[in-house]
Design brief:
By secondary structure, this protein is an alpha/beta fold. It is built from 19 helices and 16 strands. GTPase that associates with the 50S ribosomal subunit and may have a role during protein synthesis or ribosome biogenesis.
Length: 540
Amino acid sequence: MVQEHSHKSQASYKSVRKEGRRNTRLGSILENKSQVLLQDSDPGVSGRDMAADDQNQQGAGSREWEQEDWQERESRNQLKKVSGLGELQDVTEVEYRRVRLEKVVLVGIWSSRDSSQSQAEESLRELAALAQTAGAQVMEGVLQHRFKPDPATYIGKGKAGELAAIVAATQADTIIVDADLPPSQRRALEDVTKVKVVDRTAVILDIFAQHATSREGKAQVELAQLEYMLPRLRGWGAALSRQAGGQAAGVNGGIGSRGPGETQLELDRRVIRTRMARLRKQIARMAPARDIKRGSRRRNSLPTVAVVGYTNAGKSSLINRLTNSHELVENALFATLDTAVRQSKTADSRKFMYVDTVGFVRRLPTQLIEAFKSTLEEVAQASLIVHVVDISYPDPFSQIDAVNKVLADVPGVEGIPTLMVFNKVDRVDNTTRQRIENLAPDAFFVSAATGEGIDRLRHAVQAGLPRPNVHVDAVIPYSQGSLISQIRQFGSLDSADYMDRGVHLVADVDDRLAARIISCAENSGQEENPGGSGQTEAVQ
């Protein structure tokens, strides 16, 4: 009986492989999507009409579920290949690719109840970009349409066998799954395919590890990696059973040394937990330095503009254009991890700061959100948020949703004014631009590469900054040069006349500077004459 069942399984597997070879040429999924989208009127399903008739007596909800179940069974006939994943144009060659590139095969699944085929393809393309940024060469990418992931091998045992054949044909080293894969599914898939299997989260963590430069950034990434690794530790053979007690300690080991002892796996977990505790303390010790920097900006009344957006949306390039700076910008995913602050000036010479934040991504690992919470706090301290979107992305509004979901978990962000900015308009045609302009009429459309729309955006940013609320008319002694300088930097200066006893300034300043001006005028023997609500006059 076992042999007969085995022969039938092999025959079925061969027929599936033969059918798959006829219908899954590279690129077919994009050229003819009708091969993937299953239609109710498909003539190939006439043999199932009687079964469908038997179900017509059930309710409409039951019929829909059975139809989905039927589509699920039919779609398991083959893995659908996605073309062009190894030829992405938007990912740069980076320094750390001097080593031999890992050859990878990408795997994803989708169900019509959760998403569409086009969304699944776009997610796989994003995974390909992530893999290339991490230093891998994408050999192949396949999608499977199924109702839900297989609890054992994610794609099912038969499809895992097909995947093993693809891996062997492409000589791939690694399989990357477009999901957060539980340890049991990863191990089962490795057992079938005989190569390393990682998930989307592992790839993102690897990119963060390569791009982190500051001590705090490196510590945050390492903590996130250890949190991800801890439940995924696996022991093999003797390594799993090595113990520090029991018979290994001998009969004369003394009290406390006998018994089952501690396995090597448990020791590894204890080491990781100890390291995680140290990293948390290390990150906590760095918090005062961040607070000092933020406090310095607050004391100097420096408004801040937080630039947020999806990874590789062009945030750093846009800040370069807005500030007329020439900082090195890398065309890669997660090129900016450590918060960068750039200074700028308004048209009336008031200083403010642009804060360049880490890019977001769909399904950003929870470990990273927690680890980079301190970085995201910069957004909550901002006077204005500039949300940058890549208009050339096939579905830019999905990126907007992904960013908004992360920001929704950051306390203090709600209520901060936000400017929506669609970048890279030089990469789309007029039809695409017009369609998005109709959907987002209040947004700004710019190109950091060509400079289009930058002046209008710069004016809107400056107009959105908080303005000084106290009008002063005072003579500041020349001995108070630092105060004069601060009024010029942080206030809105209307006029400055140089007199014998000092500089006669007419300006709008904040409460802090106004108090210093009044004190300076009093200490200089000048008379203070309030000129009405919100106005200070100290002119002799």
